[in-house]
Amino acid sequence: xxxxxxxxxxxxxxxxxxxxxxxxxxxxxxxxxxxxxxxxxxxxxxxxxxxxxxxxxxxxxxxxxxxxxxxxxxxxxxxxxxxxxxxxxxxxxxxxxxxxxxxxxxxxxxxxxxxxxxxxxxxxxxxxxxxxxxxxxxx
Length: 139
What we know:
Helix content: 25-40%
Number of strands: 4
Oligomer: single chain
Low-confidence stretches: 1-8
Distance between the termini: 62 Å
Mean pLDDT: 80
Radius of gyration: 23 Å
Number of domains: 2
Number of helices: 4
Shape: elongated
Strand content: 5-15%
Largest sheet: 2 strands, parallel
């Protein structure tokens, strides 16, 4: 049974507005023998934690409504790196990822906002700016 409802009256789909506790809810659903679909959405981080949290009800309702819509299948593309990787980031996180991959790949890092980020001593570094997307003709 689900929340005190006989299994035969359970809905075909359950939407849970809590991704943090998804493993717990999934376990509970499995224990109840629920055969319908369960999906999770995260409204707290997307709408609830802000200066406007008290008036976020309409945004939360829209997020719940949108998450109940079926999504188009995700297309995957298989890439072969041939030992080369490009990391595009904005801070030290991109540098750290490059460091972790550098033992097995030839890594290039592009930082969108380099600011005070200091490249590691082992890296060749250049400083430049990329033009905004769409501002450079492709022909």
